[in-house]
Amino acid sequence: MTKVQIFTDGSARGNPDGPGGYGTILQFTDSRGVLHERELSGGFVRTTNNRMELLAAITGLEALTRPCQVDLYSDSKYLTDAFNQHWIDNWVKNNWKRGKSGPVKNIDLWERLLKAKTPHQVNFIWVKGHAGHPENERCDKLATAAADGSDLMVDEGVDG
């Protein structure tokens, strides 16, 4: 099984409701030892930062063409904790409810992320402030460039 590293970031550019963008970098080494990289950008997005972080992770996983062993790096503690602390398992088990605090937000993207990760073995890794991961900083620059570009516009909306 191919080992892949995915670095993701969503950038709200200081405004939690956008405009922003998201960026993803895929890295893997082939059987000859050659490192391959692929940069993906989601364009301009008018949405919340959490949705951008989820979209960045989804973009990376959906770009994989065969099952892989994935280390997915994100500076979103919410995203990584959802899997590492099994929040998402409990949400699904409780029909997307978080107990007394109400329904889970962004169900559409959580379901899409679950589907995207299904064929893979994914290890979600939280990167605090990008420390030690310059690829994550590159993702932030990609995400910001996507927000600054006007060639692609996606309106994700803001769900409750």
UniProtKB/TrEMBL annotation:
Subcellular location per the Swiss-Prot or TrEMBL entry: Cytoplasm
Keywords: Cytoplasm, Endonuclease, Hydrolase, Magnesium, Metal-binding, Nuclease
Binding site for Mg(2+) 1: D9, E53, D75
SUPFAM superfamilies: Ribonuclease H-like
Required cofactor names: Mg(2+)
Enzyme class: hydrolase
Any Pfam family: RNase_H
Ranges for region Disordered: 1-20
Reaction equation(s) it catalyzes: Endonucleolytic cleavage to 5'-phosphomonoester
Every RNase H type-1 domain range: 1-148
Residues engaged in binding Mg(2+) 2: D9, D140
InterPro entries, per the entry: RNase_H (IPR050092), RNaseH-like_sf (IPR012337), RNaseH_domain (IPR002156), RNaseH_sf (IPR036397), RNaseHI (IPR022892)
PROSITE patterns with a match to the protein in the record: RNASE_H_1 (PS50879)
GO biological process: DNA replication, removal of RNA primer
Record function comment: Endonuclease that specifically degrades the RNA of RNA-DNA hybrids.
Record-stated family: Belongs to the RNase H family.
HAMAP family: RNase_H (MF_00042)
Record protein name field: Ribonuclease H
